[in-house]
Amino acid sequence: MELSTVISKVQKLLSLANSSNANEAAAAAAAANKLIDQYRLSEADYSAEEKDLDPLVEDEGFIYETGRIVSWKSVLVVVLAKHYGCAVFNSVYYPNGRKVSRYKLVGRTSDIHITNYMFSWLVMECQRLCEKEARGKGNIFAASYCHGFVDGIMQQLNKSREEAKATASESSIIKINSRENEAIAFMNKMYKLRTNNSSISMHLDMSAYNAGVDRGKSIHLGQSMAAGSKVRLLG
Description:
This protein is α+β, with helices and mostly antiparallel strands. It has helices spanning 3-16, 22-50, 71-83, 109-133, 139-165, 170-190, 206-218, and strands at residues 56-58, 64-66, 87-90, 101-108. The protein has seven helices and four strands, in the order ααββαββαααα.
Protein backbone atom coordinates (compact mmCIF):
# COMPACT_ATOMS: atom_id res chain seq x y z
CA MET A 1 0.00 0.00 0.00
CA GLU A 2 1.32 3.47 -0.92
CA LEU A 3 1.92 6.13 1.73
CA SER A 4 -0.78 8.34 0.14
CA THR A 5 -3.32 5.55 0.65
CA VAL A 6 -2.26 5.13 4.29
CA ILE A 7 -2.58 8.87 4.92
CA SER A 8 -6.01 8.90 3.26
CA LYS A 9 -7.14 6.21 5.70
CA VAL A 10 -5.54 8.12 8.58
CA GLN A 11 -7.41 11.30 7.56
CA LYS A 12 -10.73 9.46 7.74
CA LEU A 13 -9.86 8.05 11.15
CA LEU A 14 -8.74 11.42 12.50
CA SER A 15 -11.97 13.04 11.35
CA LEU A 16 -13.69 10.61 13.72
CA ALA A 17 -11.17 11.52 16.44
CA ASN A 18 -13.00 14.87 16.76
CA SER A 19 -16.21 13.05 17.59
CA SER A 20 -18.15 14.16 20.66
CA ASN A 21 -18.29 10.47 21.58
CA ALA A 22 -15.16 10.01 23.73
CA ASN A 23 -14.85 6.27 23.07
CA GLU A 24 -15.24 6.71 19.31
CA ALA A 25 -12.69 9.55 19.27
CA ALA A 26 -10.12 7.59 21.27
CA ALA A 27 -10.54 4.46 19.16
CA ALA A 28 -10.19 6.44 15.91
CA ALA A 29 -7.00 8.21 17.02
CA ALA A 30 -5.62 4.91 18.27
CA ALA A 31 -6.26 3.25 14.94
CA ALA A 32 -4.67 6.16 13.05
CA ASN A 33 -1.32 6.00 14.80
CA LYS A 34 -1.35 2.21 14.91
CA LEU A 35 -1.80 2.23 11.13
CA ILE A 36 1.16 4.58 10.70
CA ASP A 37 3.48 2.55 12.94
CA GLN A 38 2.51 -0.69 11.20
CA TYR A 39 3.06 0.95 7.81
CA ARG A 40 6.55 2.12 8.75
CA LEU A 41 7.59 -1.29 10.09
CA SER A 42 6.23 -3.21 7.11
CA GLU A 43 7.72 -0.62 4.74
CA ALA A 44 11.13 -1.25 6.34
CA ASP A 45 10.75 -4.99 5.66
CA TYR A 46 9.66 -4.36 2.09
CA SER A 47 12.58 -2.01 1.40
CA ALA A 48 15.05 -4.56 2.72
CA GLU A 49 13.60 -7.33 0.58
CA GLU A 50 13.40 -5.27 -2.61
CA LYS A 51 16.62 -3.26 -2.03
CA ASP A 52 14.41 -0.22 -2.60
CA LEU A 53 15.42 2.23 0.13
CA ASP A 54 13.46 5.41 0.65
CA PRO A 55 16.14 8.10 0.10
CA LEU A 56 17.40 10.46 2.78
CA VAL A 57 16.46 14.03 1.89
CA GLU A 58 16.06 17.49 3.33
CA ASP A 59 12.41 18.58 3.36
CA GLU A 60 11.70 21.33 0.85
CA GLY A 61 9.42 23.15 3.28
CA PHE A 62 9.35 23.80 7.01
CA ILE A 63 7.34 21.88 9.57
CA TYR A 64 7.08 24.94 11.83
CA GLU A 65 7.85 28.54 10.86
CA THR A 66 7.37 31.42 13.29
CA GLY A 67 8.61 34.83 14.35
CA ARG A 68 7.93 33.91 17.97
CA ILE A 69 8.54 30.33 19.08
CA VAL A 70 5.72 28.74 21.05
CA SER A 71 7.60 26.33 23.28
CA TRP A 72 5.06 23.49 23.31
CA LYS A 73 4.98 23.48 19.51
CA SER A 74 8.79 23.29 19.29
CA VAL A 75 8.76 20.39 21.76
CA LEU A 76 6.07 18.63 19.72
CA VAL A 77 8.23 18.97 16.59
CA VAL A 78 11.14 17.26 18.37
CA VAL A 79 8.93 14.52 19.87
CA LEU A 80 7.35 13.63 16.52
CA ALA A 81 10.60 13.87 14.55
CA LYS A 82 12.25 11.43 16.96
CA HIS A 83 9.29 9.03 16.94
CA TYR A 84 9.10 8.95 13.15
CA GLY A 85 12.87 8.74 12.55
CA CYS A 86 13.70 12.27 11.39
CA ALA A 87 16.34 14.82 12.34
CA VAL A 88 15.25 18.44 12.84
CA PHE A 89 17.06 21.76 12.96
CA ASN A 90 16.12 25.42 13.23
CA SER A 91 17.07 27.37 10.11
CA VAL A 92 16.98 30.94 11.44
CA TYR A 93 16.90 33.92 9.09
CA TYR A 94 16.39 37.67 9.46
CA PRO A 95 14.07 39.25 6.87
CA ASN A 96 14.13 43.04 7.39
CA GLY A 97 16.06 42.53 10.60
CA ARG A 98 13.31 40.42 12.17
CA LYS A 99 14.24 36.97 13.47
CA VAL A 100 12.22 34.09 12.02
CA SER A 101 12.69 30.47 13.12
CA ARG A 102 12.07 27.76 10.54
CA TYR A 103 12.15 24.15 11.75
CA LYS A 104 13.23 21.84 8.95
CA LEU A 105 13.11 18.04 8.80
CA VAL A 106 15.73 15.70 7.38
CA GLY A 107 15.07 12.00 6.87
CA ARG A 108 13.39 9.41 4.69
CA THR A 109 10.74 10.93 2.43
CA SER A 110 7.90 8.85 3.91
CA ASP A 111 8.97 9.68 7.49
CA ILE A 112 9.02 13.40 6.67
CA HIS A 113 5.49 13.24 5.20
CA ILE A 114 4.16 11.40 8.24
CA THR A 115 5.85 13.78 10.73
CA ASN A 116 4.47 16.83 8.93
CA TYR A 117 0.98 15.34 8.83
CA MET A 118 0.87 14.33 12.49
CA PHE A 119 2.29 17.70 13.60
CA SER A 120 -0.41 19.60 11.71
CA TRP A 121 -3.17 17.44 13.17
CA LEU A 122 -1.89 17.41 16.76
CA VAL A 123 -1.33 21.19 16.82
CA MET A 124 -4.94 21.73 15.74
CA GLU A 125 -6.17 19.16 18.25
CA CYS A 126 -4.18 20.70 21.11
CA GLN A 127 -5.40 24.20 20.26
CA ARG A 128 -9.00 22.97 19.99
CA LEU A 129 -8.88 21.29 23.39
CA CYS A 130 -7.01 24.18 25.02
CA GLU A 131 -9.63 26.63 23.76
CA LYS A 132 -12.31 24.43 25.26
CA GLU A 133 -10.68 23.57 28.60
CA ALA A 134 -8.35 26.51 29.38
CA ARG A 135 -10.36 29.50 28.14
CA GLY A 136 -10.36 32.42 30.57
CA LYS A 137 -7.78 30.83 32.90
CA GLY A 138 -4.77 32.86 31.80
CA ASN A 139 -1.70 32.39 29.63
CA ILE A 140 0.29 30.34 32.16
CA PHE A 141 -2.57 27.88 32.59
CA ALA A 142 -3.01 27.53 28.81
CA ALA A 143 0.73 27.08 28.13
CA SER A 144 1.04 24.54 30.96
CA TYR A 145 -1.97 22.63 29.62
CA CYS A 146 -0.41 22.45 26.14
CA HIS A 147 2.95 21.26 27.48
CA GLY A 148 1.15 18.56 29.44
CA PHE A 149 -0.77 17.57 26.32
CA VAL A 150 2.50 17.09 24.39
CA ASP A 151 3.95 14.96 27.20
CA GLY A 152 0.78 12.85 27.24
CA ILE A 153 1.06 12.36 23.48
CA MET A 154 4.70 11.33 23.85
CA GLN A 155 3.73 8.62 26.35
CA GLN A 156 1.11 7.27 23.96
CA LEU A 157 3.52 7.29 21.01
CA ASN A 158 5.97 5.23 23.04
CA LYS A 159 3.20 2.74 23.84
CA SER A 160 2.22 2.59 20.19
CA ARG A 161 5.77 1.80 19.12
CA GLU A 162 6.03 -1.06 21.59
CA GLU A 163 2.70 -2.53 20.47
CA ALA A 164 3.64 -2.31 16.79
CA LYS A 165 6.96 -4.02 17.49
CA ALA A 166 5.14 -6.99 19.03
CA THR A 167 4.04 -8.19 15.58
CA ALA A 168 7.01 -6.92 13.56
CA SER A 169 10.10 -8.75 12.34
CA GLU A 170 13.41 -8.23 14.11
CA SER A 171 14.99 -6.79 10.95
CA SER A 172 12.27 -4.17 10.50
CA ILE A 173 12.60 -3.10 14.15
CA ILE A 174 16.37 -2.65 13.73
CA LYS A 175 15.86 -0.60 10.57
CA ILE A 176 13.19 1.63 12.11
CA ASN A 177 15.30 2.20 15.22
CA SER A 178 18.27 3.27 13.09
CA ARG A 179 16.40 5.84 10.99
CA GLU A 180 16.82 8.78 13.35
CA ASN A 181 20.59 8.23 13.63
CA GLU A 182 20.86 7.93 9.84
CA ALA A 183 18.93 11.18 9.42
CA ILE A 184 21.14 12.97 11.96
CA ALA A 185 24.31 11.73 10.24
CA PHE A 186 22.96 12.86 6.86
CA MET A 187 22.06 16.28 8.28
CA ASN A 188 25.51 16.70 9.85
CA LYS A 189 27.16 15.97 6.50
CA MET A 190 25.23 18.84 4.93
CA TYR A 191 25.54 21.40 7.70
CA LYS A 192 27.87 22.24 10.56
CA LEU A 193 25.24 22.95 13.17
CA ARG A 194 25.96 24.38 16.57
CA THR A 195 24.67 22.23 19.42
CA ASN A 196 21.99 23.97 21.41
CA ASN A 197 22.09 22.81 25.02
CA SER A 198 19.55 25.35 26.24
CA SER A 199 16.44 24.05 27.97
CA ILE A 200 12.98 25.51 28.17
CA SER A 201 12.44 27.42 31.38
CA MET A 202 8.92 28.41 32.29
CA HIS A 203 6.57 28.61 35.21
CA LEU A 204 4.15 25.69 35.09
CA ASP A 205 0.71 25.55 36.58
CA MET A 206 0.84 21.91 37.66
CA SER A 207 -2.92 21.46 37.78
CA ALA A 208 -3.12 22.66 34.17
CA TYR A 209 -0.08 20.58 33.16
CA ASN A 210 -1.57 17.42 34.68
CA ALA A 211 -4.91 18.11 32.99
CA GLY A 212 -3.05 18.40 29.68
CA VAL A 213 -1.15 15.16 30.29
CA ASP A 214 -4.41 13.35 31.03
CA ARG A 215 -5.99 14.76 27.88
CA GLY A 216 -2.98 13.82 25.74
CA LYS A 217 -3.01 10.31 27.19
CA SER A 218 -6.78 9.99 26.72
CA ILE A 219 -6.34 10.09 22.95
CA HIS A 220 -4.94 6.55 23.35
CA LEU A 221 -2.66 6.74 20.34
CA GLY A 222 -1.02 3.46 21.28
CA GLN A 223 -4.09 1.33 21.93
CA SER A 224 -4.69 -1.39 19.35
CA MET A 225 -8.15 -1.63 17.81
CA ALA A 226 -7.91 -5.39 17.55
CA ALA A 227 -5.48 -7.01 19.93
CA GLY A 228 -3.36 -9.69 18.35
CA SER A 229 -4.23 -8.78 14.77
CA LYS A 230 -1.42 -8.33 12.29
CA VAL A 231 -1.90 -5.95 9.37
CA ARG A 232 0.44 -6.21 6.40
CA LEU A 233 0.35 -2.84 4.68
CA LEU A 234 2.88 -3.58 1.97
CA GLY A 235 3.82 -6.58 -0.08
